[in-house]
């Protein structure tokens, strides 16, 4: 059998995470015994041929995970838009017997790829007729297989929840707006911040949600009224009167009024200066949004999508519809490429036609829902309650270790509850506060600024109630007339909530709905693929490891980095995937002496062959005996002086810091659904209790009585952990060479 030959290119605008995708495509292809080429400078390189099309090996994609942009270059190509250009491109591929393509780019690039695929047979025919290639070649490579990966910071592609690069762009934007917010607050100034997005308001919407901005302008949903400027000014004035010191307006590049007239940032600035009689400053974020080191999410998304892309393109049959790789509800899959592109174009068309309802519909339900939530959160005061409605008193608390995003969730819960006309009570220090009666009414401004801060403003504790505590809790619930509880926290909070639920028979006061919102950096909670705080912790770990790697490379060192997670290896595995660690030690897998022997041998082999850096990541509880210290001692003793060993225990920095954009967004979305749940259940005679989560199909609520069955009690983690399936990908990527080659060497 002849070896399959495939090529990968990046095209259109660059996006952080493209390198992870390229690395993954190259290594997966080599693992599958295919030959793989990189086409430099996008389609232009394909037309130019020569050394723009280069064969890649395992090491040609080493050390690039942490780099922004794309190392194989990207370009816009007018040549490729012409028939002649594409014919030359086809010749360049055929000359190298390449008939499979992985294209990483936006909708333009993917449309180009599909056109090329359709034309391929005709292009080859022309090349045969002009005697540039042989008829035999055509027989062997008569069809071009393509698969698309979406690299775009705008997150503007239909069919996938996220595109490669959007999360990193959000990191850049939220960092910038957080920084602006502090200077704005100092001077009581108003800032207009313009972010990218011509036809897509994703970045503006999510950035406004994540930073607690006061106004947002997106192309898909312009202000409905003609005098929107006056409304905006009035809202800002009300915000000031309510005590807001900073006012931030986030606008997308493509912001427009309902008639389709573009809204410029300087227009907004001038109008507000006249109205508010204060200085208004404009910040256009521009290309910083595209740049810099990719976030953990984008690295791992690129890696997982690249892996899927190779398997999809290698399995493609001539009559198959070309596919695009997508992520939906945290699972990688495929979707018909051109359908996705057409739906994406339909949004742009709906905006052009001023059909904003359709534009929002096409963006999907979670986008619409987020927009609605945002509209409430950014109000300066809640709506007045509707006369005659039942007035509820709902409590919110944090339990377990602090997790970044807890405050964001509390803020959303407080404001959304108040806006629905209810009273929200904050409980200090988790169940401890519920026992001691530390309860305080929360008002709108009491959570001002909480969207962006880490830690727990309410205070949290690991206390799990038992025995006499129940009596005290029942008294607090009665005294404060609490109709429902939102517990935002970790496993101890889940257990505490379940205990109250179980004790309903004995304490009538507990016959209220309780809902748990997963917040723990460890990501060890049942019923949710992801918990709030884990994404932030991962980014902290990976930033630290990137620095360690840079320092280590000069010294022939092997680093062993210990990360948190208790007995759940999520942080270890995912940070290993994002940094290219060659070994990850997990409690789920255990550590065996035999494995350590192999690890040492591989390290020695690597350093003998010129390797300059080793990186291993160990989960803090991976093994009782083989501690970080012991592993380091073993590696050092066995290093044959080929390398030094150092350990780094990252510790509590992992629990700290401002929450990442993803944690803020997810915290807000969860909180919104939890408040809806409590309001609904509190008005029934037999209220249900639940825990919320994000699973393959989207957001789900599980009945609280199911919780114990889903937890591995001994190890304090869910019985089913989806991310364990990612291990083969992590292993493949971090090997020194393909498995078949490793076996040959052995
Ligand atoms: P993006 O992929 O980010 O949407 P562009 O729309 O600029 O970026 O497309 C990148 C490149 O893809 C273009 O410069 C061109 O070479 C190619 N391309 C885009 N659309 C087409 C098309 N309809 N036919 C052929 N090539 C196209």
Question: Helices and strands in order, then pairings?
Answer:
Elements: E1 5-10, H1 18-31, E2 35-39, H2 42-48, E3 53-55, H3 83-95, E4 100-105, H4 107-129, H5 135-140, E5 145-150, H6 166-187, E6 190-195, H7 202-211, E7 215-217, H8 228-242, E8 247-252, H9 265-276, E9 280-284, H10 296-315, E10 323-328, E11 331-336, H11 337-352, H12 356-363, H13 365-377, E12 393-399, H14 406-419, E13 423-427, H15 430-436, E14 439-442, E15 460-461, H16 469-479, E16 484-489, H17 491-502, E17 514-518, H18 534-552, E18 557-563, H19 570-579, E19 583-585, H20 593-608, E20 613-619, H21 628-637, E21 644-649, H22 661-681, E22 690-695, E23 698-703, H23 707-710, E24 711-712, E25 717-718, H24 727-734, H25 739-745
Parallel strand pairs: 1-2, 1-4, 4-5, 5-10, 6-8, 6-9, 7-8, 12-13, 12-15, 12-16, 16-17, 17-22, 18-20, 18-21, 19-20
Antiparallel strand pairs: 2-3, 10-11, 13-14, 22-23, 24-25
């Amino acid at each position: 059998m002849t070896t399959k030959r495939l090529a990968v290119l990046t095209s259109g605008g660059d996006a952080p995470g493209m390198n992870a995708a390229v690395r993954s495509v190259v290594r997966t292809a080599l693992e599958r015994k295919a030959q793989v080429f990189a086409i430099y400078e996008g389609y232009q390189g394909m037309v130019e041929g020569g050394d723009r099309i280069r064969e890649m090996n395992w090491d040609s994609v080493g050390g690039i995970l942490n780099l922004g942009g794309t190392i194989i270059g990207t370009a816009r190509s007018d040549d490729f838009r012409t028939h002649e250009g594409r014919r030359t491109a086809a010749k360049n591929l055929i000359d190298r017997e390449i008939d499979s393509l992985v294209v990483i780019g936006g909708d333009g690039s993917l449309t180009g790829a599909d056109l090329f695929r359709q034309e391929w047979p005709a292009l080859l025919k022309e090349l045969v007729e002009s005697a540039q290639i042989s008829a035999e070649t055509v027989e062997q490579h008569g069809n071009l297989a393509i698969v698309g990966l979406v690299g775009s910071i705008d997150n503007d592609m239909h069919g996938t929840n996220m595109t490669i690069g959007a999360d990193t762009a959000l990191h850049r934007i939220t960092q910038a707006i957080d920084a602006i917010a502090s200077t704005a607050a100092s001077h009581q100034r108003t800032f207009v911040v313009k972010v990218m997005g011509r036809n897509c308001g994703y970045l503006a919407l999510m950035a406004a949600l994540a930073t607690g901005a006061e106004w947002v302008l997106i192309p898909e949903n312009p202000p409905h009224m003609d005098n929107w400027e006056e409304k905006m000014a009035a809202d800002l004035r009300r915000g000031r009167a309510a005590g807001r010191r900073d006012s931030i307006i986030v606008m997308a590049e493509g912001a427009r009024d309902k008639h389709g007239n573009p809204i410029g940032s300087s227009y907004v600035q001038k109008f507000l200066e006249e109205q508010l009689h204060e200085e208004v400053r404009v910040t256009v974020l521009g290309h910083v949004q595209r740049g810099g080191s990719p976030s953990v999410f984008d690295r791992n998304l690129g890696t997982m999508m690249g892996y899927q892309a190779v398997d999809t393109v290698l399995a493609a049959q001539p009559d198959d519809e070309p596919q695009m790789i997508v992520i939906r509800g945290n699972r990688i899959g495929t979707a018909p490429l051109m359908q996705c592109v057409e739906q994406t174009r339909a949004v742009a068309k709906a905006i052009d036609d001023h059909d904003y309802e359709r534009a929002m519909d096409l963006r999907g339900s979670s986008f619409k829902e987020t927009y609605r939530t945002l509209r409430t959160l950014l109000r300066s005061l809640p709506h007045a309650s509707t006369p005659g409605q039942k007035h509820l008193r709902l409590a919110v608390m944090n339990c377990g270790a602090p997790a970044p995003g807890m405050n964001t969730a509390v803020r959303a819960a407080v404001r959304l509850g108040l806006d629905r006309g209810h009273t929200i009570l904050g409980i200090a220090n988790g169940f401890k506060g519920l026992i001691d009666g530390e309860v305080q009414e929360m008002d709108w401004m009491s959570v001002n600024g909480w969207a962006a801060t880490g830690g727990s403003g309410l205070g949290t504790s690991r206390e799990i109630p038992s025995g006499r505590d129940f009596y005290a809790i029942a008294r607090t619930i009665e005294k404060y007339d609490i109709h429902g509880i939102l517990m935002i926290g970790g496993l101890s909070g889940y257990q505490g909530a379940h205990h109250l639920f179980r004790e309903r028979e004995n304490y009538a006061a507990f016959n209220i709905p309780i809902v748990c919102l997963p917040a723990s950096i460890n990501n060890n909670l049942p019923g949710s693929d992801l918990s709030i705080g884990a994404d932030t912790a991962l980014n902290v770990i990976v930033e630290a490891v990137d620095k360690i790697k840079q320092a280590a490379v000069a010294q022939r060192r092997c680093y062993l980095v210990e990360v948190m997670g208790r007995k759940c290896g999520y942080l270890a595995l995912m940070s290993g995937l994002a940094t290219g660690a060659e070994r990850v030690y997990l409690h789920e897998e255990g550590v065996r002496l035999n494995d350590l022997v192999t690890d040492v041998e591989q390290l020695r082999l690597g350093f003998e062959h010129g390797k300059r850096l080793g990186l291993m990541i160990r989960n803090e509880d991976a093994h009782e005996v083989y501690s970080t210290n012991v592993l380091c001692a073993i590696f050092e003793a066995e290093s044959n002086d080929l390398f030094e060993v150092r350990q780094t225990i990252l510790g509590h920095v992992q629990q700290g810091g401002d929450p990442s954009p993803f944690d803020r967004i997810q915290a807000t979305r969860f909180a919104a659904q939890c408040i809806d749940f409590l309001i609904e259940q509190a008005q029934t005679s037999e209220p249900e209790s639940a825990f919320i989560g994000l699973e393959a199909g989207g957001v789900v609520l599980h009945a609280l009585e199911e919780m114990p069955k889903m937890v591995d009690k001994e190890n304090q983690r869910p019985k089913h952990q989806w991310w364990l399936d990612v291990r083969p990908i992590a292993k493949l990527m971090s090997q020194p060479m393909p498995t078949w080659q490793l076996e040959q060497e052995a």
